[in-house]
Amino acid sequence: MTPQSNTRIAIGCRSIRLLLLGVALATFVISGRANTPSSHWRLIWHDEFDGDSIDETKWTTTLAWAGDDGSWRHHNSNYLSYIMDDDVVVSDGTLKLQTQRRDVMNPMGRVYHYTEGMIQSKDKFWATYGYYEIRARVPVEAGRGMWPAFWTLSNGWPPENDIGEWWTSNSRFHQGLAYRNDSGGISWDDYNTYSPLPTGFHTYGMEWGPGYEVFYVDDVVARTVTGSYVPNVPMYLILNSGVESARPPDASTVFPNSFEVDYVRVYEWSDDPVIDNTQLSLAFTTGPSSTRATIYAWSGSGVAYFDDFDLSIVKQENGAGVSRGSSGPTASRYSARRANLSDGPPSY
Ligand SMILES: [Ca+2]
After folding, report:
1. Ligand 1 centroid to residue 204 C-alpha, Å
2. CA of 93 to the centre of ligand 1 (A)
3. Residue that finishes a domain, picked among 269, 289, 315
4. Cα(34) to centroid of ligand 1, in Å?
5. Is the Cβ–Cβ distance between 90 and 239 less than 8 Å?
6. Between the chain's N and C termini, which has fewer beta carbons within 10 Å?
């Protein structure tokens, strides 16, 4: 979110009025949370990882199935890593799903030489459809062997949605879904890229509705899937770090390292624009002299310009989330939707 001026306040009728009284002319700018999709997407579940430990009302730190060794801590032979609770670290506003090079033993006596962190929401949060997003950093700098992922599963497999999956050994990035095809086998509708993986934090999202999914990287559409095989069942969320067996770490791989996640957010589509004043902020570039303004409905990110106050709304675009109160201003220009995010299922 970029402040439009050095005057910036949380929205609220009283504070708006006070501010309006003191400012000079009629153009000001409202910015919603930059990371909120359009006003029709309602935030229904999220974790900002603001505490100092994982929230166990939302997450479990083992697999949701027994795994190939029965320990609930080892996915399958594609992984070298064993899931450990102490590789799930929450600090300084982010989740760190660590991987480490260390020997651990499962209850049956099998030794693993690497460990990973995992969280999953089975029996704690399920959803069908919606918009799912993380902001995350992949441990590219660690070198070979890392395999972090953000994905969803239902009971059994498939279906599987991969909102982001990275392999550091061959710089592979994957988004897409797995489904059961008409002959009873597994098919994928997905894509992979093999180019240098991104450093630093980026957002990875999936918009999921009846018969379609749209995958995003940094708010840009990377892949649109349509078909009767798009999942229509409740699914839970999984995030994990991990060490792959096919292209394992080498002596130069840096341990410990972390798949770092700033937040996980899930939105559901609402036919009514969301009214959530707590997400608002208001910034003035220049302001009116004395007109009262009450803005009570807004969600989404973008800009609203008010340059007259005749209590009519001149223009709204894309089902805008700005309305006026009984003493409200005119939105004479409004542009709010986040680029590229669709305005909902009907357009597919
Ligand atoms: Ca955070």
Report:
1. 15
2. 4
3. 269
4. 14
5. no
6. N
In a domain, 16, yes or no: yes
Q: How far is the CA of 313 from the centre of ligand 1 (A)?
A: 36
In the reported structure, the alpha carbon of residue 32 is separated from the centroid of ligand 1 by a whole-number distance in angstroms of: 18
Do residues 63 and 75 lie in contact, with contact meaning Cβ atoms separated by under 8 Å? yes
- 11: which DSSP letter? -
Name the nearest CA neighbour of 244 among 153, 114, 137: 114
Domain match, 169 and 261 both: yes
In this prediction, residue 301 carries a pLDDT of 34
- Same domain (yes/no): 297, 168: no
Q: Are residues 26 and 73 in the same domain?
A: no
CA of 71 to the centre of ligand 1 (A): 31
Q: Please, are residues 94 and 61 in contact by the beta-carbon 8 Å criterion?
A: no
Task: Say yes or no: 31 and 56 in one domain.
Answer: no
Q: Are 120 and 79 in contact (CB under 8 A)?
A: no
CA atoms lying within 13 Å on the CB side of residue 131: 25
- What domain count does the chain have? 2
pLDDT of residue 37: 60
Domain finish residue from 226, 249, 269: 269
Q: Residue 345 falls within a domain, yes or no? A: no
For 215, the domain range is 43-269
196 and 333 both lie in a single domain: no
* Amino acid 39: pLDDT: 62
Q: Check if the beta carbon of residue 191 is closer than 8 Å to that of residue 174.
A: yes
Number of residues assigned to the chain? 348
- Both 155 and 280 in a single domain? no
Segment 117-174, tens digit of pLDDT: 999 999 999 999 999 999 999 999 999 999 999 999 999 999 999 999 999 999 999 9
Q: In angstroms, what is the span from residue 51 Cα to ligand 1's centroid?
A: 9
Q: 151-161 burial, b for 16+ CB within 10 Å, e for fewer?
A: bbbbeeebbbb
Residue 244 CA to ligand 1 centre (angstroms): 27
Residue 346 within a domain: no
Residue 10, both tokens: 């949380």
Residue 92's identity, in one-letter code, is D
Q: Is the pLDDT of residue 218 over 80?
A: yes
